[in-house]
Amino acid sequence: MTAAAPSTPPEPAPRPGLYVRDSSEYGRSLGFFDAIYGFALTLLIANLDVPPADAWTSVATLLDAVGSQLVGFLISFVVIVVFWLSNSRLITRLRGLDSHGVILNIVLAGLIIFIPFTAQGISDPELSDLALPNILYAINLAAAILVQMVMYQWEVRRGLSRVEVSPRARRAEVLDALVNPVILLASIPVALAFGGWMAKYVWLLMVVASPVSGMIAARVARDEARKRETAEQP
Description:
By secondary structure, the protein is an all-alpha fold. It is built from seven helices and two strands, in the order E-H-H-E-H-H-H-H-H. A two-stranded antiparallel sheet has the order 1-2.
């Protein structure tokens, strides 16, 4: 006996403000947002100040002059790329975007564009250990993650998911999406008490916690899919 195909929700009914997949409006929206991510990546290079002439005498002196800025550049480059990949993955799981989803994506784009500014604060050698630059960076990233999560969950609630998602799987997705914002926001009191570098060490928790929560959410989704397929078998 073969397993039934995964259940898919019915096609969304046409309504004002709905950009369905494969429509020109949908493609233009995605192109606009992709361009913003690319622009934000380009802006990061402005955070690297050209070092003085004497810093170019050796690799060691050059790294000493721009090392902190280079680390901030690389971190934020990876962060923006991860946001783009995550947003692309979530959009792929949707049948389209409604007007609220477009607005939330615009808010998200604004937060992404702000990352080069807040990244400059954590990469400048004179500012990197101050509390405020690290707090602003943490709030910037946490807000962007939360807006991205709200955008996707809103569209799922509006019936725009390409695959049926159970309430249990959705809760697991939400909890997974909350892990990084919780760590980022938890670094704020650490920055206030111990300085910016200690806050950065707190951020390292995301390297472990995020993959673990992602695996748990994926396992819950697989379990729910198996239950659905079993229930749909004749």
